[in-house]
Amino acid sequence: MTEAAARHAPGTPSWLSLLAHDPAASQEFYHELFGWDYRQGPGPGSAGPHFRALLDGSEVACIGQMPRGRQCLPAWLPYLSADDADKAAELVRLCGGTVGVGPLDMEGTMRVAIAADPSGASFGIRQTDTRPGARMGGGPGTVVWNELVTHRASAVEKFYQTVFGLESEPSGEHLGAGGADAEPDRLTLTAHGRIVGGVRGVGDELPHDRGSHWLMYVEVDDTDAAARRVAELGGRVLLPPHDTPYGRTARVADREGAPFAVVHTGRRGS
Question: Would you say 157 and 95 are in contact if contact means Cβ atoms under 8 Å apart?
């Protein structure tokens, strides 16, 4: 499979989007933290303006305005690739999930929807053969891992298998934690043999105010410094920096409470 085909394989995270109550403040926060710059343009799931986050000229994410009247917490959503967004949306409904937006056409180059799995975790669906996805795994300031944090991993395993054709297997280690003994309820998700993300069951430790959610991990040069910077910028440190088999990581939240993680893996940018 070519690199381009792998990026569009069903179930592969190919885009990241944040709907914020104050997009300007969010843009400032992530610019100061990761060095992102912005270009205005339409974005998935909202009629309001969206701003594409750029790093060294490459698109890495999107920040947009939370629609008025929508009663939901700001959160980063991964958009999972699909060969047919309409079919994927129908499978979401048949498998116990919900579709909140779309499917709808965007920019004439892709078809998207926003959905939630049976545990309530929101995510996007993205169908395109022509538009490149977000730059991922390309060094500091880019997303290197996407993980679903939920009550019990096995409860959503079949959902992602059926909707996107993802395969899963037990995983003792990944970016999310420090080892098999610490958190045994974990799955690695693969698409055509390529690792594309993970699922972590945390039981009663699942945040009651947020519930199941997808968590993005962004590469940084120094995890401890990044965590301190989050707090200086008005965000919060949810889990202090700690070592894992894949690098030093910390779970944090931005000014509006959208959770994400920072990690130093030591990888070189592509």
Answer: no
Q: Which residues contact 207 (CB under 8 A, 6 or more apart)?
A: none
Read off the pTM. 0.89
Choose among 258, 235, 236: nearest CA to 74: 258
Q: What architecture is the 3-127 domain classified under in CATH?
A: Roll (3.10)
pLDDT score recorded for residue 42:
59
* pLDDT tens digits along 27-60: 999 999 999 999 987 554 444 678 999 999 999 9
The CATH number for 143-264, chosen from 2.170.120.30, 3.10.180.10, 3.50.50.60, 3.30.470.30, is: 3.10.180.10
CATH 3.10.180.10 boundaries in the chain: 3-127, 143-264
The residues, any chain, with a CB within 8 Å of residue 91's CB and separated by 6 or more, are 162, 163
- Three-state SS sequence of the chain: CCHHHHHCCCCCEEEEEEEECCHHHHHHHHHHHHCCEEEEECCCCCCCCEEEEEECCEEEEEEEECCCCCCCCCCEEEEEECCCHHHHHHHHHHCCCEEEEEEEEECCCEEEEEEECCCCCEEEEEECCCCCCCCECCCCCCEEEEEEEECCCHHHHHHHHHHHCCEEEECCCCCCCCCCCCCCCEEEEEECCEEEEEEEECHHHCCCCCCCEEEEEEECCCHHHHHHHHHHCCCEEEEEEEEECCEEEEEEECCCCCEEEEEECCCCCC
